[in-house]
Amino acid sequence: MPVPEVETSLDPAIADRLKRTADGLVAAIVQEHGTGDVLMLAWMDDEALHRTLTTGRATYWSRSRGEYWVKGATSGHVQHVKKVSLDCDGDALLVTVEQIGAACHTGTHTCFTDDLEMR
Amino acid sequence: MPVPEVETSLDPAIADRLKRTADGLVAAIVQEHGTGDVLMLAWMDDEALHRTLTTGRATYWSRSRGEYWVKGATSGHVQHVKKVSLDCDGDALLVTVEQIGAACHTGTHTCFTDDLEMR
């Protein structure tokens, strides 16, 4: 589901550095401050990034629900954002957060619990 | 650039759990073993995942070049894979690696060097 055409106040100096998918999104890797655990992968459009940077609360674009999603708004498992870094080619963000409660909607600390067999 | 229709030997039990983009890809977050540093974000199709799991050398699909890419094949900055984990909804992988040299093609340790201002 493509993101809506919303007016955004994202700093143009940042917006110019983003390389978005055809749907207008940038991948957001979420890492826990302190432990370094990678908690989840989510997606942001310009407006979600603007809200994340200005409110300090991690805000994503939900591709399945087609809406903005303040992490923890219903579960209470909020993410207080300590830092947001952009990668070298502008298509991925690293969001460092203080995670309250479980990051995963399944109730686990991280979403990456399914280890694949190597051989 | 969509991935080619290649025969792949990826274990069907794994392939069944993947939720791919329209281009047939799954995001691969690369984290350094030991330090926990998030190094880069890359992409894998089924065959790249198969090669990664069976060779122990991180192998991606290059969207810009339209080809498989064994990380470090030309630079020497290879990634020895310690673990690959799939996330709860099957659209992201966490690849834990021993990184030789710089992970980023710019020569820096990680690709996430551009810290965005929060306010």
From TrEMBL, chains A, B:
Highest taxon above the source species: Bacteria
Catalysis performed (reactions): 1-(5-phospho-beta-D-ribosyl)-ATP + H2O = 1-(5-phospho-beta-D-ribosyl)-5'-AMP + diphosphate + H(+); 1-(5-phospho-beta-D-ribosyl)-5'-AMP + H2O = 1-(5-phospho-beta-D-ribosyl)-5-[(5-phospho-beta-D-ribosylamino)methylideneamino]imidazole-4-carboxamide
| Residues holding Mg(2+) | 87, 89, 91
According to UniProt, this protein's pathway is: Amino-acid biosynthesis; L-histidine biosynthesis; L-histidine from 5-phospho-alpha-D-ribose 1-diphosphate: step 3/9; Amino-acid biosynthesis; L-histidine biosynthesis; L-histidine from 5-phospho-alpha-D-ribose 1-diphosphate: step 2/9
Q: Where is the signal peptide?
A: none
User: What is this protein's function per UniProt?
Assistant: Catalyzes the hydrolysis of the adenine ring of phosphoribosyl-AMP.
Report the protein name in the record: Phosphoribosyl-AMP cyclohydrolase
Tell me the organism.
Actinoplanes aureus
